[in-house]
Every structure is written in C-alpha cells, then in structure tokens.
C-alpha cells in the first residue's frame, strides 16, 4: 500500500473506473439509453432487478427525483437488499434454479417491456435464468455486469453460461473480480468495494441518455421531481396519473 491515505486511494480508484466506463462503454451506454427511450415511446414499461448489493443500483433508479417515473423494481423475495435474515440466505437464493421463472410468472412484465438486470458476477442461476426467461417473453434485456467474471470464475447456472450471454445489450462495469480496490500489508484480505458507486453512475448515465433521447424526439420524458422543492409533489402527481398504467410501485 502506498503512503497516500486509504480514502484518497479508494476515491482515485473509483474515479479511474468511472473514467474507464465513460470512455470504453460510451457506445453501449448510448445504445441502452436509446433502447429505454424506444420502450417508453412505444408504450412499454421499464423494470430493474438486482440481487444482494447489486439491488442497491436497481433501487436507485426507482421513484427517484430526476429519474424516469416508469422505472419499476422487479423484486425477488429474500434477495433484494440485505434485510433478509440471516443475511447469507440471500446469497443462497441467488443460486436456486427456478426462482426467476416463478417471479416472472407472477410479475407484470410482458412483450415490449425492458428489463435491466444488474449482477456484478453474472454467474449465479438467478440473473442468468431471469435474462433467459424474460427474453422468451419478448422483453428486451440490458445486463449490467463485470465481464471479467466470465473469464475468471465458473458459472453456477446449469448451462455454464453467464448473464452477459443472454442480453440484448451488455454494460461492463469494469469491476475486478472480488470487488475490492485496496490492499494493505497488515490486512489479510483486499477491501474497499467500488461496484455500487460505479454501477449506479453507469446506470444514471443510461437514464440521462434515455431522457435526452426522448426530448430530442419531441417527447416529454416522464421525469420525477424532488418532493423537497416547491411544486414537486404536484408535478409528481401529474406524471404518475398520466402514466398510471405503467407504474407499479404505487400499488
């Protein structure tokens, strides 16, 4: 470890990753934003799914000031966040075959919708099966993952494939296998994960692209405003009423 303070090292590492995403994923970000804009313009609905800590980036898109009102969370009981007890149960559920199919069968997803699937490793049964089954329904799938895992780990899906193999578009977060940016000669394990910072920024770049693309087509993007600014609640009520048949987190 260098003489620089760990906080500065971590922030530098996160900035470097964000620069890589900006420069290397620009075309994929543009394509993903366009896909979402097309979905909105064509009357489709938007959904996001992530398991464990990957769910944090998905939740950051839903009912978000400055975000698209049509983004809905596709929740899988026991894997959204770390509130399940005991916490390791959530990790175990990600490896259960058939769980994604059961969730999709009871979800509102349909042909013409778009689904963001966020999985850092992309190796577990849940995100792989989610992508396969969603595409079979006619849903367009955008995978957000670290492509490095496919080269350095073994798939836990029966097919031996990864999330990246079953998507219409893939966004690579560039996170190294293990998701830890720092080491220290007195610390036995690497530490300081950056995946949440980078993945959230990557997805907000996609949302910004989608909003601007809609506006460039003469379509007002269905954006939410902060409830902590004057007129925010009134604005949001109007948007939610206008798009009530495509918003599911109100029910």
From TrEMBL:
<protein>
    <recommendedName>
        <fullName>UPF0309 protein ABZ568_20400</fullName>
    </recommendedName>
</protein>
<dbReference type="InterPro" id="IPR035472">
    <property type="entry name" value="RpiR-like_SIS"/>
</dbReference>
<dbReference type="InterPro" id="IPR046348">
    <property type="entry name" value="SIS_dom_sf"/>
</dbReference>
<dbReference type="Pfam" id="PF13580">
    <property type="entry name" value="SIS_2"/>
</dbReference>
<dbReference type="InterPro" id="IPR050099">
    <property type="entry name" value="SIS_GmhA/DiaA_subfam"/>
</dbReference>
<feature type="domain" description="SIS">
    <location>
        <begin position="36"/>
        <end position="220"/>
    </location>
</feature>
<comment type="similarity">
    <text>Belongs to the UPF0309 family.</text>
</comment>
<dbReference type="InterPro" id="IPR001347">
    <property type="entry name" value="SIS_dom"/>
</dbReference>
<dbReference type="InterPro" id="IPR022951">
    <property type="entry name" value="UPF0309"/>
</dbReference>
